[in-house]
Every structure is written in C-alpha cells, then in structure tokens.
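User: I'm curious what two different proteins look like when written out as structure tokens. Can you demonstrate?

Assistant: Sure. I'll show them one after the other, since each token string lines up with its own sequence. Here's the first protein:
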Amino acid sequence: MSGVISHIGPNISTLERRQDSLIDHFIPDRSELTQTHFVEWFDGDALDSIWTFFQGSGGATKGMADAVGDGFQISSNAGDPSRGLIYFNDKRHYDLRNSILIVIYRQAEASPTNALIGAGLTTTTSLQQFAAYTGAAIGMFTADATNFRSQISGGTFTDTGVALDTVFHRWKIENSSGDTKFSENGVLKVTNTSPTPSGAVQPGFEVGSRTSAGTRQGFIRYLEVFNK
C-alpha cells in the first residue's frame, strides 16, 4: 500500500505501533513536513503500480513474499551482472540536499559475497557502487564487506560499524546542503561531510549479484521519503 498511512505489520516494536508513521519518532511536529511525503508498507498481494521494476542484463525476479512480515522480495539471477531495482521510473520528486528517507529491509544471507543489496535515493536506475549516479544509499555495496556501508554519489563509501546479518534494520538517511547523516534503529552511525551534490532524486531498492555469485535475495518492508 502506497502513499497513505496504513497498519503496521508484524515484528514492529511497541513504540512504532503508537505512531501512524515512523517519521513521528524523528519529527513529532508534523506541521514541519511539506506535501511531498510518500509512504509505502509493501503489503498485500501485489506491488503498487506506482513502482517500476527494472532488470539488469542478467535479469531478476520479484514478488510479494509469502512469509510473515517479509514484505516485497527481489531475487537476482546467477549471472554477471544480475540485478533488479524498484524505483519511480525517473519521476524525481525529492531534493537531495533537503530530504529524509526511512527504510526497513533485510537480506537473506548474513554475508553474501559479490552482492549488492541496498536502498536509497538516486537520479538513475541504479544504486550500485560501479555506476556513476548522484544520490545517497545504505546497504551491502562492496564485494566482500562485513558491515553495512553508506554511499554518496557513485563510490564514496563509509563503514557504518553495523554488522551484516539477516534481520530487518531501520535506516534513516537525512540529506542537507552541508552533510548526509545515516542512522540505524535511531542511532546515528555516519555523518558524511563531503559536499552533498544537488539534484532531484527518487527512492529505490536494489538487489544484485556480481560475477557468478549465485542468487541473492533482499526483502523490503517499509519505505518513507519526504522533503524537509
């Protein structure tokens, strides 16, 4: 379900159930928000048509997961490069220097080698580290990393110190003209003070494999994005 505040699915904390939207934890005064505010719960029997599914040359599959709380699933094929991405088909409503993205997702393997699994804001049909894009993303973005890493515009990585695993994490990416902040489960992990590029961006969630790494899977449960 997209664009409206709905119920909160299984495995969300008691604190989160007290709020209509996760952003209430970060900005209690909703009057500070503009009208450009999107919420997606990834529930039901099909992905909302507002999303476009993009496949790389190696292909990928997608669908609503048939498991408690797993939301929407993307699986890459065993090829190079094989990847799938959901995005807004290049409808870019959000300001990279003045926006917040909140996302809850997980990966199927604790330390998948040669994998790309992540979410963020992008100008193009890619969040991957070997593409020249403008945006900000969080995820498993290197060939054999042990921790989640933040990424700014096509290749500037910072280790978050959060170990890769298979459980859902709630990530917040806060963009401003001076820096980009990355928080995990309400705790600030990275402040990137590199000059934040300007531009209009769209949200995305991507799963891919490099070389002949085999199938990789990612699950996304929640995504929220808005201009400040």
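Here's a second, unrelated protein for contrast:
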Amino acid sequence: MRSALTVHGIEELLIALGLAQLFEKKLHRIDHVHAGEDLAQQPDALQAGGIDQQLLAAGSCLVPPDRAFLEARCDELEAELAALSPRLTANVIHGDAWQGNLLVRSGAAVLCDLDQVSAGPREWDLVPTVVNALRFGFAAPPVQRFLDAYGFDVIGWDGFPVLRKVRELVMLAGVVPVLSSSPGIATEFARRMYGLRNGREDRWTPYR
C-alpha cells in the first residue's frame, strides 16, 4: 500500500503540472469555431457536465425530499448559469477535468474520458481541481501552483461560486443511479446532501 506522503506527492504532481500544462498549452488553445461539425453538435458544456434531470429520474432509490431538493437546485443553477459572464474566451474544453481523468506515464500527461469534450467557458475546466481541494481537504499550495501555471485565478472570479455549486451538484447527481449498489455510497451521498441543505462546508470523502 502506498503511504499518504506518496499519494499526496502524486496528487501535487497531477494538479500542479499535468492539468495546467494540458489546458494552457494544448486543449484550451484549440479554436472551437474551427474544431469541426462533431464538436459544434455537442450539447452545452455545463449541461454535459451533469446538470441533467435525467440522472435524477434514473435514481429509483432517491427519496422524495432529496429528489425535490436536487430538482430545485437544478432549476436555480440553470438560472444562475444563464446570467454568468465568463472572463475567459470560450474554447474547446474537456468538461469533466478532474485528476482521475488524467493519466501520467514517463513524465507525459494525457486526458482521458472525452465524452464531455465540447465548446464552452474555459473556467469550467479549472473548477474541479479547486472544488476537490476544498471538499476533500487537499493541500492549498499545489492548487495555487495549478492556477498560477494556467495563468488565471478562477477562485477570485465572481462567477466561481456558481460554478462551484454546479460542480458539487455534478458530484452528487452522478451517483444517483447507483445509490442502491453500495451502502457506503448511500451513506456518503446522504451526508453530502445534509451538508448542502444546511449550507455547511463539511469535508467530503470519496465514494466507495
């Protein structure tokens, strides 16, 4: 088993080097206007990111109060997203850019899980790294190095609170269809729901 120090060291490498380099030097430099018809036909990036009530409809084990809360949250965030003014120009984005979708081998990093690649606000690809740090208690310095390497402090942007709420909703809704598959997933889901309902900044733990 790897030690906590080793895991944290890998985490720092992925955050500070891999994602920022891939975004700033490669993916986000692709002009979405010339990226081809397939990309142009993709849904809006944030909708593709999980703001989709079809996920909630698939959750047969979702209790009515939780379903009502999440549906209301979807409606609330759709309105807030419509009023959002991105600071960065729109371009090709990954759509689900967290460390788990980054593969590193022999010093080279590549992104995987490309089904949500689309045109959209580049800020969206920066948010998962920050939200993961806030919710899972990752160290702050690697996150700051990640933002510095990219060249934009998304935390200081006035639209960040909206995208944070969207990302947290994605992290909840994504497991709704499989709540019955694991008591551990159901327990963590319930704990996260309680915190969101009550405006708490509790640390989350990964689903297991």
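A detail about the second structure: The two ends are 17 Å apart (CA to CA).
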